[in-house]
Write a structure and sequence with these properties.
The structure holds 2 protein chains of 2 kinds. By secondary structure, chain A is mostly helical. Chain A has helices at residues 10-22, 32-35, 39-63, 69-77, 79-111, 118-135, 137-161, 179-191, 213-239, 249-255, 267-296, 303-318, 323-356, and strands at residues 258-259, 263-264. In chain A, strands 1-2 form a two-stranded antiparallel ribbon. Chain A is globular. In chain A, α4 packs antiparallel against α5 and α9 (213-239) crosses α10. Chain A has one domain: Amino acid/polyamine transporter I (Up-down Bundle), CATH 1.20.1740. By secondary structure, chain B is of the alpha+beta class. Chain B has helices spanning 2-26, 43-55, 84-101, 103-106, 112-119, 131-139, 186-196, 228-240, 249-256, 273-282, 309-313, 316-345, 353-363, 370-390, 396-406, 409-413, 419-432, 439-474, 532-541; strands spanning 60-67, 71-78, 125-128, 143-147, 153-156, 202-209, 215-222, 268-270, 285-289, 295-298, 476-477, 480-481. In chain B, α7 packs across α10 (273-282), α14 (370-390) packs antiparallel against α15 and α14 (370-390) crosses α17 (419-432). In chain B, the strands form 3 sheets. In chain B, strands 1-2-4-5-3 form a 5-stranded antiparallel beta sheet, sandwiched between helices. The chains are: A mainly alpha, B alpha+beta. The A-B interface holds A 9, 11-12, 108, 112-113, 116, 120-121, 124-125, 127-128, 131-132, 135-136, 139, 142-143, 145-146, 261-262, 264-265, 267-268, 271-272, 275-276, 279 and B 346-347, 349-352, 456-460, 462-463, 466-467, 469-470, 473-474, 481, 483, 486-489.
């Protein structure tokens, strides 16, 4: 039984990972309270730390060619415990889908449509992601290249246009924060975009060249990391201490663009970039959720689950009270909570695989 | 909603199947293959039967005569579709006069094969033995020669009818390049392609579609370049068509396209032999339908709509510039009205302040919201365009005068629409003509985006655009991804997208289409200044 018939090439996988990381460009700001102007250092540290973890995921995926995360769980933990672990993962993915929906809705509510009900924005966004998921991972992967290039283009353009606003003295003094704050910041950074690549254990089985998977995923991580670095450096250099206070530093930084009073007010670009890159991220999570559920329930196709899961995701998102509560959760609770999924469970799996010499 | 429509369609299909089954039971099925009725030995019987079948048409001529030793024959032909002088000179004359002049030989001619071999001085002669074949041949312009005491008939190629001469096509005009276009006659069209590609590998296969129209349809491709699976798939889809009429290539297109519910067409059409020849040489297959100058080609990719045959005839820099202008125009034609609506309705803060003031001043006193204005103007423009296409030439001026009043100064002074809107709509209208191959999808997208923008501003536009993108990425035309070479990305094939590389640099065919024989030309064909060696040679010659 194969739920997904599509195939993706190694370059598509690379761009998919890159676009996936870019989908968190605006949520990077969650770590800013902990790290202040050393955000970029935390970002680099998180990127470096996430590379070995990504290798763990890839090794696991390559040990079981053609099998995704949930099938590997079954193989590693046995059919019953494995199902339980898979169920936990599905819940986590569903939660991430709903949080991202809420984040997109809240962002547009705050900056573009103060009077529109948030549910309208979320429904439209969920609808488009559901459309993508129904079309399959192959279509999402095909789209990724253009979306990634577009996001990089936006990041570079705004960076260049803001060059004369930048004060690089804003980075001084370097490493001015207590070490535990730095660790916390790095952990937040790892939890929100970088470790989420575990989701690609659901996608790697559909890659057509298994040998190139490792390089594709690592290069993809680098693409996403470097784009994030450009954005973080831009924000801190332009805004200075202000970057730690405002709700969305990217928005505030791009707002300052003023080229001869003709090219100004480009913050719509940030909004457009947010939707385009977040579409990739949410679609991949959405896809994994739906595919996992279909596997757990032994369905023949995942398509009937797409709309119900979307509705559940929106409803779950509506339980968020305010952006303050949301940010608090993302900063303090979630990074610790997610450690077990991103680090503990995969490492245990790998250990069991080594001990039991799986797959037999 | 689409699934609802599909369900209905499936239901209708079931009805049809039942209907066809009923018909088969009654033995009058249109599509059922009944055993052909053979000709009988007697000329009289044959003629009675044929008269019953087609005799009461005024253009059918049945000429009975005898030759030689009182051998009765009958010649049946359609008066409008045959070459009369050819019938007189090459069929009647040899039979009637020459056979008389040499009496002793004619006595032996009783066999129809001998008439074919020795008397008829015509190129194409077929021997038929059933009524169906005779009737089909006669209706397609052949002359049928029936002989007494013989159960076979000769079908003589005398086909000739008036058709339009090869003219410059109305749709894809060029400044530089061949000016000939396809005509309504299939034979002329295949000839035009063959004259471009004089290779024995160019295969033109024919089949008949439509149980009543019996339209000739040809598939043209180059053996060795075109993917054999593609040809097989085309034949499979064409053979699937069980209809009674094929009047234009549009009929065929709608029967064989991959995505019938898509606003994007997955089958390309062209009126220019050079464009079609270029597509065939890239590994595509062309489908020619009798009776229309529009030749289909598959598989189609989106980029094709932005390519014009002239791009390849002019030099690469200018061609690349024009390409990018075309892309820009397409995006303007889709996004200009919706962006205007979004900016003025939701995001006034994004407009530079001086511009905002002047726009607000122009918009003052206009009673409608921007969405209404945009939709109204869009519809009015479409009406004017449609009227301009359909109306008889002498009335043309009236439309242009009225059109200028409706979309123009008067509408603004009357306070019905704002002046900026007029500019936006005019720009959109002009841009939409640049990429004519996608003008139909562009129109639908424009209206959709305007509504989305009126609903929820830039967010709506981006969401809508993502939707279109998902749709485009999931489309395939005969197995080829519609967005290739952009998605899936094929860096080597980007040479012929937004930029057009020089001809000498395009040494491979598009990978997704012509993978079968990728090499088009030699690698080092870049023109270079003559080397020292050749210079010395030249001196020696002098």
């Amino acid at each position: 039984m194969k739920l997904e018939k599509g195939e993706i090439s190694s370059s598509q996988l690379m761009f998919l990972v890159g676009g996936f990381i870019q989908g968190s460009l605006l949520t990077l700001a969650f770590a800013k309270d902990a790290t202040k102007h050393d955000l970029w250092l935390a970002l680099i540290a998180a990127l470096m730390m996430s590379l070995p973890l990504a290798l763990v995921y890839i090794t696991l995926a390559l040990k079981f060619p053609g099998q995704n995360l949930f099938q590997i769980n079954d193989a590693v933990f046995g059919p019953y415990l494995g199902k339980l672990v898979s169920f936990q993962y599905i819940m986590l993915f569903l939660m991430i889908v709903s949080s991202n929906l809420w984040f997109a809705g809240d962002f547009f509510l705050t900056f573009f449509f103060p009077e529109t009900p948030i549910i309208v924005i979320m429904i439209m966004f969920a609808f488009i992601c559901a459309w993508g998921v129904r079309a399959g991972i192959e279509v999402i992967a095909r789209m990724s290249i253009i979306l990634v290039l577009f996001t990089i283009l936006i990041a570079l353009t705004t960076f260049i246009l803001l060059l004369n606003e930048m004060k690089f003295s804003n980075f001084l003094p370097i490493f001015d924060i207590p070490i535990h704050d730095f660790i916390q910041g790095t952990n937040i950074m790892m939890a929100i975009p970088f470790n989420e690549v575990i989701i690609f254990m659901m996608v790697i089985p559909y890659a057509n060249k298994m040998k190139q998977v490792k390089t594709s995923v690592l290069y993809g991580l680098m693409i996403g990391g470097i784009t994030s670095l450009i954005v973080v450096i831009r924000n801190t250099a332009v805004l200075g201490p202000l970057a730690d206070i405002v709700v969305s530093p990217s928005m505030e930084a791009v707002r300052l663009i003023d080229l001869g009073e003709i090219i100004e007010r480009l913050e719509a670009l940030v909004g457009i970039g947010l939707i385009l890159s977040m579409f990739l991220k949410v679609s991949v999570f959405y896809y994994a959720t739906v595919l996992g559920m279909a596997q757990l329930l032994k369905l023949r196709s995942y398509v009937p689950l797409v709309i119900p899961v979307g509705i559940i995701g929106i409803t779950l998102a509506l339980t968020n009270e305010s952006s303050i509560q949301f940010t608090y959760t993302a900063m303090n609770t979630y990074p610790i909570f997610s450690l077990s999924f991103y680090i503990v469970l995969p490492l245990i799996s790998l250990l069991i695989v080594k001990i039991r010499k799986l797959p037999k | 909603m689409i699934s609802y429509i599909l369900k209905k369609l499936r239901y209708l299909k079931l009805l049809n199947v039942n209907y066809a089954d009923d018909q088969k039971k009654q033995g009058t099925s249109e599509y059922g293959q009944s055993t052909p009725i053979k000709l009988s030995q007697s000329l009289e019987k044959n003629l009675i039967a044929i008269r019953n079948l087609i005799g009461n048409n005024f253009d059918v001529i049945i000429r009975e005569f005898s030759f030689g030793d009182h051998i009765n024959v009958a010649l049946i032909f359609l008066s409008g579709m045959t070459d009369q002088s050819m019938i007189n000179e090459n069929i009647m004359k040899p039979l009637m006069s020459e056979s008389h002049s040499s009496q002793n030989e004619t006595l032996k001619i009783k066999d129809i094969a001998q008439i074919k071999a020795r008397i008829l001085s015509v190129g194409g002669v077929n021997q038929y033995s059933s009524y169906d074949e005779i009737i089909d041949g006669c209706l397609s312009g052949q002359s049928i020669l029936l002989l007494d005491e013989c159960n076979e008939a000769l079908a003589i190629m005398t086909t000739n009818w008036k058709s339009r001469a090869v003219e410059e096509p109305k749709t894809e005009s060029v400044v530089r390049g061949p000016r000939e276009g396809f005509t309504e006659s299939l034979l002329t069209n295949t000839t035009l392609i063959r004259r471009k590609i004089m290779s024995p590998d160019l295969k033109i296969e024919s089949m008949k579609l439509g149980s009543r129209t019996k339209t000739n349809v040809c598939i043209a491709y180059i053996q060795g370049i075109a993917n054999p699976l593609l040809i097989e798939e085309i034949k499979r889809r064409l053979n699937r068509i069980k209809t009674d009429s094929i009047l234009e290539s549009g009929y065929v297109e709608q029967f064989i396209e991959d995505a019938p519910f898509s606003i994007f067409s997955t089958v390309a059409n062209s009126e220019k032999p050079d464009a079609v020849a270029a597509k065939i040489l890239e590994g595509r297959a062309a489908i020619l339908v009798d009776g229309t100058p529009f030749v289909l080609s598959v598989p189609m990719v989106l980029i094709e709509s932005f390519q014009s045959s002239e791009d390849y005839y002019s030099r690469p820099f200018f061609a690349s510039l024009i390409r990018s202008i075309r892309f820009l125009a397409y995006f303007i034609s889709i996004f200009a009205p919706s962006s205007y609506v979004a900016l003025t309705t939701f995001h006034q803060e994004l407009i530079p302040t001086p511009l905002l003031f002047s726009m607000a001043g122009a918009q003052e006193g206009v009673p409608f919201p921007a969405v209404m204005e945009a939709i109204m103007m869009g519809i009015i423009f479409e009406i004017l365009r449609e009227a301009g296409v359909r109306l008889p030439r002498p009335v043309g001026q009236a439309v242009s005068i009225v059109g200028a009043l409706v979309i123009g100064e008067s509408a603004v002074t009357a306070g019905l629409i704002g002046a900026p809107m007029v500019i936006v709509v005019a720009l959109t209208a002009v841009s939409s003509f640049v990429v004519s191959a996608q003008s139909d999808s562009g129109g639908v997208l424009r209206i959709t985006f305007v509504i989305l923008a009126g609903f929820i501003g830039i967010y709506g536009i981006v969401i809508g655009q993502l939707g279109v993108f998902i749709h485009l990425a999931s489309l395939r035309s005969f197995g080829t991804p519609y967005l290739s070479p952009l998605a899936p990305l094929s860096i080597r094939d980007l040479k012929d997208t937004i930029i057009r590389a020089p001809i000498w640099a395009m040494f491979t065919r598009p990978r997704t289409i012509g993978w079968h024989d990728p090499e088009r030309q030699e690698f080092r064909l870049k023109p270079s200044s003559p080397s020292e060696e050749t210079k010395e040679q030249n001196k020696a010659v002098r």
